[in-house]
């Protein structure tokens, strides 16, 4: 019984795959664009005028948000990391309580980047912590 059922199922599946030859007539196969050379065309990036970054507004971060690199160094000491990515900058400050990443972006009114966003996490396991509490713990 089981063998007959399996054979019938197999026959049904194979019949679904069989072609009836009654495909759409008169249509051409899809056109594949020809390559003129072995190298794909490279699209040049477009430059746009810088715009002001969106500023994170959280009560308790007033001394950090809007600060430049010098002000942040005076507030927290030398950063553990100082990373540039294009015109953006990330300063990382750390202590036993937490790690604070401060993101600085230039604005249209100033070429010098200013802090617009912060992230905070525990030093031990990387879990998110309260940003304001981390700022308080890291202040000199």
Kindly summarize this structure in a few lines.
The protein is of the alpha+beta class and 140 residues long. Helices cover 23% and strands 21% of the residues.
- Mean pLDDT, to the nearest integer, reads 79
For the largest sheet, list the strands in their spatial order: 1-2-3-4
In total, how many beta strands? Answer: 4
Helix content: 10-25%
Q: Give start-end ranges of low-pLDDT stretches.
A: none
- Protein structure class: alpha+beta
**What is the CA-based Rg, rounded?**
30 Å
Oligomer: single chain
Q: Quick one: overall form? A: elongated
Terminal-residue CA separation: 82 Å
N to C succession of SSEs: HHEEEEH
Query: Count of helical segments?
Result: 3
| Fraction in beta strands | 15-25%
**Largest sheet, strands/sense/barrel:** 4 strands, antiparallel
List the helices and strands and how they pair.
Layout: H1 2-17, H2 69-76, E1 81-85, E2 88-94, E3 98-105, E4 114-122, H3 131-138
Antiparallel strand pairs: 1-2, 2-3, 3-4
